[in-house]
């Protein structure tokens, strides 16, 4: 949709070399834009030779200091810039905003999280286009960063690649005498509230109070830089994007603080040059086939429900037809094989030790489940990229053999029914069963449920479906990510409870959970008229979510329902609420 002036593909400089500065030449050749050239000299272009020939590579890091997921990205970006310059290109670092999901979790700040995806995409698109960059290397870290940069790339569609910031190492709690991570903190909140947070009964010290244990946990859960190490949203997106060919092999499993991550930054310069020379553009890589790979990887590894939202948005940005039904189709055929947190035991740092994501890709390609023939940013196919990678060892407990999976089909299920006529997304690993019936207990906004949990008010015993509504893209506004409830329920050991919402869940959530209910309550969806005591059935075998209320009664209740007055009327969330589409279409802001 952008028609930018640029040199035709295959144009050569006077000395016969291929012109890689197809876009930047608009401002750097001749003297039509002397002001632009004057400013570029000031910014570091050394001479006229470089000015007239070198491609401009934008290096977009989602750096900021206050979050382990992002705090190291400036360092990676500097390494990339150095390597880009050494390969006779101009590297221009810039930054986009990003927020930390874990820091804003459970608070009003969380309403701002999803919409940062759009701001990140807007930033990458804006800088690339406004500054006539010829290529783009993006370095994201926390959850929304990855889909954000890819959407930006799909919009400007100039040669691009992504370097995932990498995930964090696992921490260790001396008082709990076990490895811990960020979700240990969230889950401990549940046992803290229900007074079951204790040191292990293993013959060691058991004298510490719940506050001392909590304090120890908070101090040790995050031992350095890197995104959350489980198969949460950041790693879901990074593994999928690597399986789509947009990042270098190994990018998603290489830990944030490792020399290998630094080497990847150097290799990125070679790869972006290949992309420029071969004119490999994001939309050449973002195809129905590569999205299929993204979904396969997500199902095999047990990825986050947020992936559904982000893949839909990435696909629509790239003009690829992808619908909720594609997720169900892939889920039906792909076994869930990864014993990775949040539902399993291991972390990305562990998977790295046994070969990493390329070794998993190799397994899936050999089984015909992953398409190894898709092109990638290396100029080679995915299968060629991973050919030299080791196969997964036999004696490991992280990735199960395909013929002995944890679950024979995927963990993400698309549900529809009188509660979600426009679709809903369930995460069902099978551990908690595949069917659940219970009486509704309704909460307008997550904070109400949070209060009930903190007060220990959710009883054990009778099956309950906790309904959290007015938390959708428009209603939140911002579709804030929920984790507190699922983590607290897990921590408190409440197995008689399922959670449903028109909002979404943190990738760290597990349990019997259904999110992304469409239409959302604020848009007059049936979830707005559920009442305490209605019986709700979630059936992941027949893919339904329904309440035992007749169509006539739902219509009658909806006739009485009045849309709430929006409580945010100015600022970024008000703009977002006005523009955003529904979750079944990716909750995008530029699809009109
Ligand atoms: Fe950033 Fe989890 S909070 S990846
Ligand atoms: Mg998240």
Account of the protein in words:
This protein is of the alpha/beta class and 592 residues long. 37% of the residues lie in helices and 13% in strands. The chain is built from 22 helices and 16 strands. The strands form four sheets. An eight-stranded mixed beta sheet has the order 7-8-14-12-10-9-15-16. A four-stranded parallel beta sheet has the order 2-1-3-4, with helices on both faces. The protein has a two-stranded antiparallel sheet with strand order 5-6. The longest helix has 20 residues. The radius of gyration is 24 Å and the shape is globular. The two termini are 14 Å apart. GO terms for molecular function: 2 iron, 2 sulfur cluster binding; dihydroxy-acid dehydratase activity; metal ion binding. Pathway: Amino-acid biosynthesis; L-valine biosynthesis; L-valine from pyruvate: step 3/4; Amino-acid biosynthesis; L-isoleucine biosynthesis; L-isoleucine from 2-oxobutanoate: step 3/4. One of its GO terms (biological process) is L-valine biosynthetic process. InterPro entries: DHAD_IlvD/Edd (IPR050165), Dihydro-acid_dehy_C (IPR042096), DihydroxyA_deHydtase (IPR004404), DiOHA_6PGluconate_deHydtase_CS (IPR020558), ILV_EDD_C (IPR056740), ILV_EDD_N (IPR000581), IlvD/EDD_N (IPR037237).
């Amino acid at each position: 949709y952008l028609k930018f002036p640029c040199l035709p593909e295959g144009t050569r400089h006077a000395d016969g070399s291929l012109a890689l500065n197809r876009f930047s030449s608009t401002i750097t050749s001749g003297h039509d834009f002397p002001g632009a050239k004057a400013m570029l000299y000031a910014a570091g272009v050394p001479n006229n030779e470089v000015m007239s020939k070198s491609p401009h590579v934008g290096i977009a890091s989602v750096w900021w200091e206050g979050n382990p997921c992002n705090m190291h990205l400036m360092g990676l970006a500097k390494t990339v810039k150095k390597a880009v310059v050494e390969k006779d290109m101009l590297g221009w670092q810039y930054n986009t905003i990003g927020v930390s999901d874990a820091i804003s979790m459970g608070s009003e700040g969380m309403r701002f999280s999803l919409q940062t995806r759009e701001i990140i995409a807007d930033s990458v698109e804006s800088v690339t286009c406004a500054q006539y960059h010829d290529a783009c290397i993006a370095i994201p870290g926390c959850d929304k960063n990855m889909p954000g940069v890819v959407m930006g790339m799909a919009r400007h569609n100039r040669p691009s690649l992504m370097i995932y910031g990498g995930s964090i190492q696992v921490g260790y709690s001396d008082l709990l005498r076990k490895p811990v991570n960020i979700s240990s903190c969230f889950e401990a909140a549940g046992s803290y509230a229900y007074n079951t947070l204790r040191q292990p009964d293993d013959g060691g010290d058991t004298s510490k109070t719940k506050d001392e244990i909590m304090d120890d946990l908070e101090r040790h859960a995050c031992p350095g830089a890197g995104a959350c190490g489980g198969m949460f949203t950041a790693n879901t997106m990074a593994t999928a994007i690597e399986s789509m060919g947009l990042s270098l092999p190994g990018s998603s499993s290489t830990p944030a603080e490792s020399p290998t991550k630094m080497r990847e930054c150097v290799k990125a310069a070679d790869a972006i040059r290949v992309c420029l020379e071969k004119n490999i553009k994001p939309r050449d890589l973002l195809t129905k086939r590569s999205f299929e790979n993204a979904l396969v990887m997500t199902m095999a590894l047990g990825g986050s429900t947020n992936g559904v939202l982000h893949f839909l948005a990435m696909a629509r940005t790239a003009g690829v037809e992808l619908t909720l039904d594609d997720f169900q189709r892939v889920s039906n055929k792909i076994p869930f094989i990864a014993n990775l947190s949040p539902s399993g035991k291991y972390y990305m740092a562990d998977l790295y030790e046994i070969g990493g994501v390329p070794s998993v890709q190799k397994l899936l390609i050999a089984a015909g489940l992953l398409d190894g023939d898709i092109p990638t940013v290396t100029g080679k196919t995915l299968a060629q990229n991973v050919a030299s990678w080791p196969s997964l060892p036999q004696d490991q407990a992280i990735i199960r053999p395909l013929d002995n999976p944890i679950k024979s089909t995927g963990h993400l299920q698309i549900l529809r029914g009188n509660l979600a006529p426009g679709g809903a997304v369930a995460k069902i690993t099978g551990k908690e069963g595949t069917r659940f019936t219970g009486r509704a207990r309704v909460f307008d906004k997550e904070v109400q449920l949070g209060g009930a949990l903190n007060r220990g008010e959710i009883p054990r015993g009778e099956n309950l479906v906790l309904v959290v509504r007015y938390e959708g893209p428009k209603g939140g506004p911002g579709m804030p990510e929920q984790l507190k409830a699922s983590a607290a329920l897990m921590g408190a050991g409440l197995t008689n409870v399922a959670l449903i919402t028109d909002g979404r869940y943190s990738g760290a959530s597990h349990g019997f959970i259904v999110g992304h209910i469409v239409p959302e309550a604020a848009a007059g969806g049936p979830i707005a008229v559920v009442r305490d005591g209605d019986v709700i059935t979630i059936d992941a075998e027949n893919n339904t979510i329904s309440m035992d209320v007749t169509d006539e009664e739902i219509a009658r209740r909806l006739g009485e329902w009045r849309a709430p007055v929006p409580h945010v009327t100015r600022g970024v969330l008000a703009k977002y609420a006005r523009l955003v589409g529904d979750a079944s279409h990716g909750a995008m802001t530029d699809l009109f």
